[in-house]
TrEMBL record:
The keyword Zinc applies. Pfam families: Prok-JAB (PF14464). CDD domains: MPN_like. It comes from Brevibacillus composti. One of its GO terms (biological process) is proteolysis. SUPFAM superfamilies: JAB1/MPN domain. Keywords: Hydrolase, Metal-binding, Metalloprotease, Protease, Zinc. Residues 23-121 form the JAB domain. InterPro entries: JAB_dom_prok (IPR028090), VirAsm_ModProt (IPR051929). One of its GO terms (molecular function) is metalloexopeptidase activity. This is M67 family metallopeptidase.
Length: 157
């Protein structure tokens, strides 16, 4: 349906997944704006490097889960493709909880080739974690924050 749209950020043996520090700062700012509701966004870029994001409003705003409207999600995918970018992952916030996958996270994610990012707790001590769904569970993966000096003060990884 969308050839080449799904990237493979974990598919590069010698390259860690990278996240542009400027994108990280925007994600944290937007997650704080959404507080106390969960915030979610599609992460975009090329190969293993995330250089953009696409905020997705939750179909049913909640402080403990997120879900997307089918047509809104498909529109976002089309926009990503028309910009020549790849979909590399999803980020959502845990407004008041640490960035550990919840039961809803484990049951709701079915894209093992993409990154699953969790940011939380948003207001007090935001930490960013990257997971990959593999063999029926989430495994934490390392990543590199590009331009870390500028974003390191805002987000711990
Ligand atoms: Zn979650």
């Amino acid at each position: 349906m969308y050839p080449g749209l799904l990237g493979e950020p974990f598919g590069f043996k010698h390259t860690k997944t990278c996240l542009d520090g400027k994108v990280a700062i925007r994600l944290l700012a937007e997650a704080k704006e959404a507080f106390p509701m969960e915030y979610s966004a599609l992460l975009t870029g090329r190969e293993a490097t995330i250089t953009g994001h696409f905020p997705l409003p939750s179909a049913t705003p909640s402080s403990v889960a997120f879900s997307w409207d089918g047509p809104v999600f498909l529109r976002a995918l089309r926009a990503i493709q028309s910009e020549g970018q790849q979909w590399l992952g999803v980020l959502h916030s845990h407004p008041t909880a640490p960035p550990l996958p919840s039961l809803a996270d484990r049951e709701g994610w079915h894209y093992p080739q993409l990154g699953y990012w969790i940011l939380g707790p948003v207001q007090t001590d935001p930490q960013l974690k990257l997971y990959q769904w593999t063999e029926g569970r989430f495994v934490e993966r390392p990543f590199q924050l590009l331009g870390h000096h500028s974003s390191g003060s805002a987000i711990r990884s």
